[in-house]
């Protein structure tokens, strides 16, 4: 489960109602160009100069931020804080990709 570091004054309700939604929106927007491409991708193969393996991308028909994300109050963060005055929350989150 990922850790989310915030300023110390940020409360759990703010994380769940605002920050997680904004984070999911940003992840979705960055993932969309990769997920909804109709072209094949070329992945490099180690040891083969200039050659690659072609693979078919999924036929993605939808992306959803469900199920909802939650802060787990009973879990302790495992990441070391960048600023010791910050707070850390463990997030149970997921997204759903629909493919054909």
Structural overview:
- This protein is of the alpha+beta class and 100 residues long.
- Helices cover 24% and strands 29% of the residues.
- The protein is built from 1 helix and 7 strands; from the N terminus they run βαββββββ.
- The strands form 3 sheets. It has a 3-stranded antiparallel β-sheet, covered by helices on one side. Strands 2-3 form a two-stranded antiparallel sheet.
- β2 and β3 form a beta hairpin.
- The longest helix has 24 residues.
- It is elongated and about 45 Å long.
Number of strands: 7
Query: What share of the residues lie within helices?
Result: 10-25%
Largest sheet: 3 strands, antiparallel
Q: Poorly predicted ranges (pLDDT <50, ≥5 residues)? A: 40-50
Distance between the termini: 28 Å
Structural class: alpha+beta
Radius of gyration (CA) equals: 18 Å
Shape: elongated
DSSP summary: helix tally = 1
Question: What strand order characterises the main sheet?
Answer: 1-6-5
Residue fraction in strands: 25-35%
Oligomer: single chain
**Average residue pLDDT:** 80
SSE string, helices as H and strands as E: EHEEEEEE
Key terms for this structure?
single chain; 100 residues; alpha+beta; three-stranded antiparallel β-sheet; two-stranded antiparallel sheet; 29% strand; elongated
Blueprint of the fold:
Layout (H helix, E strand, L loop, with lengths): L2 E4 L5 H24 L5 E4 L7 E4 L4 E5 L5 E2 L15 E6 L3 E4 L1
Antiparallel strand pairs: 1-6, 2-3, 4-7, 5-6
Give a quick summary of the entry.
The chain has 100 residues and is an alpha+beta fold.
